[in-house]
Amino acid sequence: xxxxxxxxxxxxxxxxxxxxxxxxxxxxxxxxxxQARRRRRRNPTEEEDGQMGDWQGEIEKEPPxxxxxxTGRSExxxxxxxxxxAIVQARRSLKALYLLPLPEHARKSVPTPxxxxxxxxxxxxxxxxxxxxxxxxxxxxxxxxxxxxxxxxKAANASDVKVAIGSIIALFESGKKVASMAGRxxxxxxLDAQGRSYSVGKRKTSSARVWxxxxxxxxxxxKRNAKxxxxxxxxxxxxxxxxxxxxxxxxIPADRERITRSFRVAGVVGAYNVFALxxxxxxxxxxxxxxxxxxxxxxIHEPNLAxxxxxxxxxxxxxxxxxxILDAAQLTRRDPRMVERKKTGLAKARKRYTWVKR
Length: 358
Known about the structure:
Order of helices and strands: HHHHHHHHHEEEEEEHHEHHEE
Strand order of the largest sheet: 1-2-7-5-6
Strand content: 5-15%
Number of strands: 9
Distance between the termini: 65 Å
Shape: extended
Number of helices: 13
C-alpha cells in the first residue's frame, strides 16, 4: 500500500494517454473535408477606404419551406393544414353571408351528396407518404366537413364560395367514380316466359333461391281475426321449400311468420305461389333468407311495392293509403348480422366458465 502512495507511481497512474482524450481519426478521412467559410470581421478603416479585401459572406441555412418540415410526414401535415385553413375560410364566408349557423331542421333538409373520395393507395401517391387507416380517416373527415359547407353554398347559390370549395374537393375525388357508380347500379330483373320471377335471399350463412309465380284467381278481400291474427277469405297458394310444404319444413310459428311478413306488409297474401331451394344454416337463417328472397321477388312482380317493402309500410287496399307503421322493417335489405365467433378461453362468444376458487 505504501508503494502505491509513492510519488513516481502516482505520476504514472495519473498519466493520460491521447487515445483516452479523443478518438483516433486516420488522416485519410480528412482528404475530402470542406471546411465552412466563416465570416471575417470587417475593419472600419477598410470600409471607409472602400477596400473590402477577401471578405466572403457566411454560409447561412435557408428557412424550411413548410412549418412541418421537421416532422416525419411533412407532405401529409401540409395537406391537413391546407384543408383545415380551407374549412376555416369557408366557415367565415358562410357566416358573412348569414348562412351559418343553421338550425338542425334546416341542415337536415339540405341535400348533401357525398362524393367518392380517393382510396388509401391513391392518397398515398398524392401525399408522397404511406397513408395509414387513421390518417386516411382524418383526411376524409375534413373532406366531409368541407363538402357539407359546399352543399350549403349550393343550396344558397353562393357562387364564389361554391367555386372555391369545389376546386379543393375536386383534387381529392377519385377518378374511378364513374366506373364504380356504374358497377353499383343493380341490373334490372324481368319475368321469364312463364311469368316467374327468380331472386336470391341470404341470411347468416343460409341462402335461398326463390321462384314466384302469381295465382291465376285473384284473392278476395282480407278479413283480420283479432283472436288468432289469421287472415281469412284468401285464395290458397302453395309455398314449397325443398319440395316440402311450408308448415312441415318450418314447424316453429315464428319462422313461418317471418316468411309471410312480406306478403302481409304488401297486402298480397295468397296471391303468389312460391318454390324455394334453401341451403346452409339452421331454421332461423333459412327462414330469414327465404323472407329476403320473397321480398325481392315481390319487387320484380310489382315495382310499385319497392318503397313499401324498403320502408316497411302497410298497403291498405281500400283507401290506397300507405301507412308507415313498420319503419324498421327493411325487408329488401340483406341483414348483415352474423354469429359472433367463439373466443379463446371462453365457453362461447361471451359466456365464461364458472370461476372456482379452489
